[in-house]
Amino acid sequence: MSTFDFSKPIAIGNDHAGVEYKQAISKWLEEKGYTVKNFGTDVLTSVDYPDFAHPTASFVESGEAAFGILICGSANGVAITANKHQGIRAGLAWDNEVAKLIRLHNDANVICIPARFIAVQYAIQIIETFINTAFEGGRHANRVNKIACS
Hints:
This protein has 150 residues and is α/β, with parallel strands linked by helices. The chain has helices at 19-31, 50-61, 76-82, 96-104, 120-131, 139-144, and strands spanning 10-14, 36-38, 68-72, 90-92, 110-114. The protein has a five-stranded parallel sheet, sandwiched between helices. The N and C termini lie far apart (30 Å).
């Protein structure tokens, strides 16, 4: 069972590589009854992913979002950018097991999806796994508490 507070919206951000994914994921989330706050682009022309990753991460970090979803071609750029925020634990997930582990062991609060490497329907399955997995705590809590620099 997830530990996310779904009285808050889910933040989503993307660059040009993730437009189709953001649209499909947002639609799926809204059909499930979740509120989605869009920080991504809707244009297919080249844009700079930090311009969308930073506002998404800030919204999660402020506590205004249940969690965040970031999408770009490889998901590395958005993950690196989001993880510059002290209160963010962004994990790159390309399959269900990784999505489960970034929640279970790392208490990830942002999931990063590589649009150029997985199908959109699989991305939705991965996000569903992320949503439905709770942080295990225990020995992992000690490790997670050592992540932030401040």
